[in-house]
């Protein structure tokens, strides 16, 4: 009986060589798979239950309180209040251009030189004409006027002698000592001398200081001097000089070019006041006011800020771009600032002390009349209507509806709605 019982509890290999199905803790492979599946289902059910009961984990943002500045951001370019276009006043050939683009120049510094040999000759000819006119006027005063006075004296003496002869002839005719023809000859002689005296007196008067001949010679001298000034002016036009101190921002001429009036050969940015011209979106026009302060930076030097002040708001709107042009004065421009540089400007349009601030990314319907946020209240989030004030740089001022320290759900958390339970995860916890 004993041997029979032992043979029943002993496993023996099959006759064909296959092994008997193994067992683990009394379970087969099939039973193990079923157990694992049940465990996975239980884990998922527990997880879902926890999520359902406690809510999803949501990264929240905290409402803060601090000083707040609202700015309007825009970009534009550096421009001088005005630019000076430089061109020639006469047609000519360029002989030399002693300056380069970007060079700083001083007033009266030569910028362009034209060929001037013909105009130099014209100046010399005009100078000779002036000298000739002066010599003629001097000769009139020193030679002709004294000679005219002497001739008048001689003519008067001849007239006196002729008059005496006439009186003698008249006396002799009464005594019948001469004929009538002799008396007539004496009369003619006296008339001739009297006429000559009158003519020479007129000539002498014309040679005096206010006389007509003096006036004529003085007019000739003035004409010659005017001709000299004209020739000198034309010669001066051959050297184009800087009208003011500044920086040469454009040069469109080279030696050998033939230039003429009306062409802009160079452009000069005067030294002194520097301005920035920027375009502001039309929707921000109501925020702008003259004398508002701003911080600006050149795109080439983004880390170097400088101050500016709003000095001009264009009364017109650019309908194509939906913007308004404004100008900002730079009282102390940095050395690196150049004409036409691209700049970014933050105009300070308003400020608030101890403002309650929320991220604009947490505000729903931010541009509507009733913006709202999802605010954490215990373990649930609820819709909270807020009143907004200043907005700038991704932050919004909250006038009513929130307090410092409140926690709100970002708009990006689209799976969370009003009344949902959540497990709050602050930004610091997510690191």
UniProtKB/TrEMBL annotation:
Pfam family, one: Beta-barrel_RND_2
Coiled-coil blocks: 138-169
Keywords noted in UniProt: Coiled coil, Membrane, Transmembrane, Transmembrane helix
Domain CzcB-like barrel-sandwich hybrid: 86-269
GO molecular function: efflux transmembrane transporter activity
GO terms for cellular component: efflux pump complex
Protein's name according to its UniProt entry: HlyD family secretion protein
Multidrug resistance protein MdtA-like C-terminal permuted SH3 domain mapped to chain residues: 354-409
Membrane-crossing segments per the record: 32-54
Domain CusB-like beta-barrel as annotated: residue spans: 277-348
Protein family: Belongs to the membrane fusion protein (MFP) (TC 8.A.1) family.
């Amino acid at each position: 009986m004993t041997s029979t019982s032992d043979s029943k509890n002993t496993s023996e290999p099959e006759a064909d060589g296959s092994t008997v199905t193994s067992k683990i803790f009394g379970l087969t492979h099939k039973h193990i798979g079923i157990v694992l599946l049940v465990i996975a289902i239980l884990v998922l059910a527990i997880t879902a239950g926890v999520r359902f009961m406690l809510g999803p984990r949501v990264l929240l943002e905290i409402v803060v309180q601090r000083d707040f500045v609202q700015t309007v951001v825009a970009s534009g370019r550096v421009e001088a209040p005005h630019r000076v276009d430089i061109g020639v006043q006469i047609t000519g050939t360029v002989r030399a251009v002693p300056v380069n683009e970007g060079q700083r120049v001083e007033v009266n510094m030569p910028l362009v030189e034209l060929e001037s040999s013909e105009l130099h000759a014209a100046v010399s000819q005009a100078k000779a004409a002036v000298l000739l006119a002066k010599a003629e006027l001097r000769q009139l005063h020193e030679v002709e006027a004294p000679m005219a006075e002497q001739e008048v004296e001689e003519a008067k003496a001849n007239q006196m002698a002729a008059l005496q002869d006439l009186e003698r002839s008249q006396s002799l005719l009464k005594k019948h000592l001469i004929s009538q023809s002799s008396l007539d000859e004496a009369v003619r002689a006296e008339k001739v001398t009297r006429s000559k005296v009158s003519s020479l007196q007129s000539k002498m008067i014309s040679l005096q200081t206010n006389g007509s001949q003096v006036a004529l010679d003085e007019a000739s001298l003035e004409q010659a001097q005017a001709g000299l000034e004209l020739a000198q002016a034309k010669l001066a036009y051959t050297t184009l000089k800087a009208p003011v101190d500044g920086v040469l921002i454009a040069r469109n001429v080279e030696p050998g070019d033939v230039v003429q009036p009306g062409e802009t050969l160079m452009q000069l940015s005067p030294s002194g006041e520097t301005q920035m011209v920027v375009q502001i979106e039309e929707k921000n026009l109501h925020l702008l006011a003259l004398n508002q302060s701003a911080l600006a930076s050149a795109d080439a030097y983004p880390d170097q800020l400088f101050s500016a002040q709003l000095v001009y708001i264009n009364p017109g709107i650019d309908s194509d771009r939906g913007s308004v042009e404004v100008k900002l004065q730079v009282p102390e421009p940095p050395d690196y600032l150049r004409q036409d540089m691209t700049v970014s400007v933050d105009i300070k349009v308003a400020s608030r002390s101890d403002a309650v601030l929320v991220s604009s990314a947490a505000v729903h319907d931010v541009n509507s009349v009733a913006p709202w946020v999802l605010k954490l209240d215990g373990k649930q989030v609820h819709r909270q209507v807020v009143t907004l004030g200043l907005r700038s740089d991704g932050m919004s001022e909250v006038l009513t509806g929130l307090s410092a320290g409140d926690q709100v759900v970002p708009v990006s958390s689209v799976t969370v709605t009003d009344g949902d339970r959540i497990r709050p995860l602050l930004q610091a916890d997510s690191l």
